[in-house]
Write a structure and sequence with these properties.
Blueprint lengths: L1 H17 L7 E4 L7 E4 L12 E12 L3 E13 L10 E8 L2 E7 L7 E2 L4 E10 L1 H9 L3 E6 L4 E5 L2 H14 L3
Antiparallel strand pairs: 1-2, 2-3, 3-4, 4-8, 5-6, 5-9, 7-8, 9-10
Helix pairs in contact: 2-3
């Protein structure tokens, strides 16, 4: 009996050591005073062609009630100082081609979010209010193309499987299909 018990403990210990939890792509932030926020972070849109800048497209929900909320897409741009700012202005500066549909989103631009980092890069963020249906459409898509129009230049990126997975996870966790 003792031998069987030790064998069982050894097998369970071995299996537990091989288990790696899935990476969490969506996060929830709650505080005691305000509304909670659910978000995708670090959804980098990689590019083989453009090595001068990094672009992320993140999603968030500011909770209102149990399931309701206000939904946003956030573009984050980072580049070396010699590459310079993208300079996202106010207006219709984010275009998403989701399968065959073109979605144009407008926002206040990035003027109040621009900063230089201590490591020699420039960072700017632009927020675009959206809705549940747009996020569902992105999550269900087989192909998503992102175009960010700045005053300095235009950045284009395509979703990779990792980006699709993060949006599906966000929608399944916080909105539902």
């Amino acid at each position: 009996m003792k031998t069987n018990c030790f064998l069982l403990i050894a097998v369970v210990g071995l299996l537990a050591g091989c288990y790696t939890p899935t990476r969490k792509d969506v996060y929830t932030y709650r505080n005691d005073v305000g509304q909670g926020i659910d978000l995708i972070t670090d959804n980098e849109l990689e590019s083989n062609a453009d090595k001068n800048s990094l672009v992320w497209l993140n999603a968030s929900r500011i909770r209102q009630g149990t399931w309701g909320g206000r939904y946003f897409l956030e573009v984050r741009y980072e580049a070396l100082q010699n590459t310079g700012w993208l300079d996202i202005g106010p207006g219709q500066t984010l275009t998403l081609t989701v399968d065959a549909d073109t979605l144009r989103l407008k926002g206040p631009g990035s003027i109040n979010t621009r900063r230089e980092t201590g490591s020699g890069t420039v960072v700017e963020n632009a927020i675009y209010e959206t809705n549940e249906d747009t996020l569902r459409k992105i999550a269900k898509a087989t192909q998503v193309k992102v175009v960010v129009q700045g005053k300095s230049r235009t950045i284009e990126r395509d979703f990779r499987p990792e980006n699709n997975r993060k949006f599906k996870n966000f929608v399944l966790t916080y909105i539902g299909f």
